[in-house]
Design a protein that fits this description.
7 helices, transmembrane helix, 320 residues, transmembrane, membrane
Length: 320
């Protein structure tokens, strides 16, 4: 009953509220008169027992649909995170020292997805850097949009130092950019010295795949009805895995190049595909008919129970 109410709540709130009122009336008021309604109880029990297989089938179908919707919603959200919020690491050239930019995401309870940008200066050599001065420049379409000042002392070989960290709640957050570079005005070690050198990153190109294919990631509609579940995953599975596997059984599998097959082979192949097609869709038709009959049977049962118990319910409600 709990799973059934949960499914109704997510599909249609009005039906859910009516069902909830009905359950409350039964639990709070109707039980008072059950002791004097043995005949009605016996008749109702026989009707329910007669339609028990229909009730079990409908409950199984509804619970399965609910679980499938929940899985689809979870898988769809995971796929959105995978494509839209996947972390990346970019770094500049440089065998002695370079700059890396790391972007990753965290879930927040109140604010949704939190984007974090971390910029680090890396000593990729085995020597200790005694002093390094310079700037980090971020560009968008060859326009400098942000500058970070760098002045570090005693950076050990193979170590890194974070020079910038922000998130999308920070006013200093790095917004849209497509490249960056490290300008070293002065770098000194015990054995070497570098001055006025640039270390550039590769161009970072956004494909906007998520925006251009939004319906493949977010889809809440089924037969024109909007649900509270994201159906993108289940629709993709149906279109790319389930339906192709079903149609595979009756589609042509052999093709002839440069020669024509004999008429007998073609007729046998056509007959085999027709038999497979007939069996598959006949089984689907039987399952559909079975479910439809169970739905009609349950509706008939509910109508008969309503006619049987409506006088008593009316008296209980009026007496309350």
């Amino acid at each position: 009953m709990k799973d059934l109410l949960e499914l109704l709540k997510n599909i249609n709130k009005r039906i859910y509220l009516l069902s909830l009122v009905f359950v409350v009336i039964i639990n709070l008021g109707l039980l008072k008169g059950f002791s004097n309604q043995k005949e009605r109880l016996l008749t109702s029990g026989m009707k329910v027992l007669y339609s028990s297989w229909s009730l079990i089938l409908i409950i199984i179908v509804l619970v399965s649909i609910l679980k499938l919707l929940q899985v689809s919603d979870r898988k769809s959200r995971d796929r959105i995170k995978e494509h839209l919020y996947s972390p990346f690491n970019y770094e500049t050239e440089g065998d002695f020292v370079n700059l890396s930019v790391h972007r990753y995401y965290q879930d927040e309870i109140k604010n949704g997805i939190l984007e974090i940008i971390e910029v680090k200066l890396n000593n990729t050599s085995k020597e200790d850097i005694e002093l390094i001065r310079g700037f980090v420049y971020f560009y968008k379409d060859k326009t400098r949009i942000k500058t970070l000042n760098v002045e570090l002392y005693n950076l050990r070989g193979g170590f890194s130092e974070r020079i910038f960290l922000s998130d999308n709640n920070d006013t200093n957050h790095l917004l849209d950019w497509d490249s960056f570079e490290l300008f070293v005005s002065e770098l000194t070690t015990k054995q070497s010295r570098i001055q006025n050198s640039y270390f550039r990153s590769k161009l970072y190109i956004k494909t906007h795949y998520f925006i251009l294919n939004y319906e493949k990631f977010v889809d809440h509609k089924f037969l024109g009805i909007r649900l509270n579940y994201n159906l993108a995953w289940i629709k993709r599975v149906l279109n790319t895995e389930v339906v192709p596997r079903i149609t595979f059984f009756y589609k042509r599998k052999k093709y002839y190049i440069g020669e024509s097959p004999s008429l007998i082979k073609e007729l046998v192949s056509l007959l085999q595909r027709f038999i497979a097609f007939t069996i598959i869709y006949f089984l689907l038709f039987l399952v559909s008919i079975l479910v439809l009959y169970a739905v009609i049977d349950v509706i008939r049962l509910l109508m008969e129970l309503a006619r049987l118990w409506f006088p008593l319910i009316s008296r209980v409600v009026q007496g309350a």
